[in-house]
């Protein structure tokens, strides 16, 4: 999940920021980055409690997507999980399993795939999953690139979306409204994250006391055309 410089520049333009301060995305070794910098505000939740950070509610957003799919009449819901940003995807995975448990839906590991967030990888894995004797009727994809691959797999197998296979993505990237059908996805307010991060960074530069070290920005499901009420819901709903 990227937060572009343009989204934070307006918040920082009047602060005369120096290069000794930085806004950082989660990377492979945030601890090494922190050790080299005077001030740092993370744009995701880091593992180091001593870092100031702003994060999105990845868990809550994923719960919204799962509750929506269940509400549409699905119980055989697959999970297409990405590998990048382990902590983020761990939150989304946990929301998937917790929501199934809360709704008394058995966890079927045949319906779970962890893949690189690439369209072709997603397409291949979804084709295999849809070849099961009792395939899932819905997929929760932990990012929108994976959701695009899922749609391509459904098209290749002549499955209608959402009639034969409902698909929900995550991040609400621009591709969601470009696809046909348009993708239901969880929206992350990256502008608000950038604004809050910039304000925290300015406060640190000005040596102001910050009452809290972290803030979590809510996520919101945006329902589009890849999900809909099932004509014949699963019998145990």
**Uncertain runs:** 11-22, 33-38
Tell me, what is the CATH class of the largest domain? Alpha Beta
Q: Give the overall shape, derived from the CA principal axes.
A: elongated
> What's the CATH topology label of the largest domain?
Rossmann fold
N→C terminal distance: 34 Å
Strand order of the largest sheet: 5-4-6-7-8-10
Q: Label the CATH architecture of the largest domain.
A: 3-Layer(aba) Sandwich
Name the helicity range.
25-40%
What number of domains? 2
Radius of gyration, in angstroms, nearest whole number:
20 Å
Q: How many beta-strand runs?
A: 10
Q: What is the strand content?
A: 15-25%
Mean pLDDT: 84
Q: How many individual helices?
A: 8
Would you mind describing this structure in some detail?
This protein has two domains: 5-56 and 188-218, Response regulator (Rossmann fold), CATH 3.40.50; 58-187, Response regulator (Rossmann fold, 3-Layer(aba) Sandwich). 38% of the residues lie in helices and 19% in strands. It has eight helices and ten strands. A six-stranded mixed beta sheet has the order 5-4-6-7-8-10, with helices on both faces. α1 (5-12) crosses α8 (190-205), α3 (58-71) packs parallel to α4 (86-102) and α5 crosses α6 (144-156).
């Amino acid at each position: 999940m990227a937060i572009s410089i343009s989204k934070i520049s307006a918040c920082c333009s009047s602060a005369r920021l120096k290069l000794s301060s930085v806004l950082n995305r989660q990377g492979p070794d945030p601890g090494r980055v922190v050790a080299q910098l005077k001030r740092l505000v993370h744009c995701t939740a880091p593992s180091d409690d001593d870092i100031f950070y702003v994060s999105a509610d990845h868990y809550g957003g994923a719960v919204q997507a799962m509750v929506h799919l269940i509400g549409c009449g699905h119980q055989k819901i697959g999970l297409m999980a990405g590998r990048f940003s382990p902590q983020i995807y761990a939150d989304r995975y946990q929301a998937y399993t917790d929501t199934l448990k809360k709704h008394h839906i058995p966890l079927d590991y045949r319906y779970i795939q962890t893949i690189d967030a690439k369209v072709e990888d997603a397409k291949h894995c979804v084709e295999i999953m849809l070849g099961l004797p009792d395939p899932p009727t819905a997929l929760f994809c932990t990012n929108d690139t994976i959701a695009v691959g899922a749609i391509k797999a459904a098209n290749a197998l002549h499955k209608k979306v959402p009639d034969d296979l409902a698909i929900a993505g995550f991040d609400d990237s621009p591709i969601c409204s470009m696809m046909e059908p348009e993708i239901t996805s969880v929206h992350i307010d990256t502008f608000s994250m950038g604004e809050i991060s910039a304000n925290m960074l300015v406060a640190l530069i000005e040596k102001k006391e910050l009452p809290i070290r972290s803030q979590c920005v809510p996520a919101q499901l945006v329902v589009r055309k890849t999900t809909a009420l099932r004509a014949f819901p699963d019998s145990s709903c």
